[in-house]
Sequence to fold (200 residues):
Amino acid sequence: MANSRIYVQDSIADKFVEAFKTKFAAVSAGDPLDATTNHGPQADSIQYDTVQRYIEAGKASGELVLGGTKDVSGLAEAHQNGYFVPPTVFLRTPEDSVVMKEEIFGPVVNINTFKTEEEAIAKANDSEFGLYSAVYTRDINRAMRFAKALEAGTVAVNCTSPTGAIDMPFGGYKQSGIGREFGKYAIEGFTETKSVCIAH
Fold:
């Protein structure tokens, strides 16, 4: 799971973006087995190159406001040869652009704005993927409206991935897969159901 699209209420967007950039940029990059690391490398050179291609595509379509280079600040010398990608943020990226439509799976995020709930839901659902989504609000009624409307296997309220529980079903909508892992839902995937019809 990787949060690659964030929609922010237009009235607080500027304040949110500055706070997000500050938090997102403050990484401790290094060995993911080290407890002090919160920013590990890409799995291999193939994924690293894939993320770099998405970053270049993002530069062509959106406004780069953080990252976009190949240098990760604070990276220990022992890890200089790893496949590290710096936190990267784009603003005002067109909804039909490659980086908004495809899964990046790297430290790259697009932040766009919305005015109404309906607009936010429509933009969030305008994707062929639907594994995990999140909504942040002080209004529980709004949270429940979003939870019902978002086309995702998990909807988190005031938290985000990887928040979950081992006994809750986990899986996606649309191209993010069918079926569920964990709990009784996972057991169903390992069972064979037989229907018997008897005329009497």
Observations:
- The chain has one domain: 5-188.
- Helices lie at 13-25, 45-61, 98-101, 117-125, 140-149, 183-188.
- The radius of gyration is 20 Å.
- The mean pLDDT is 91.
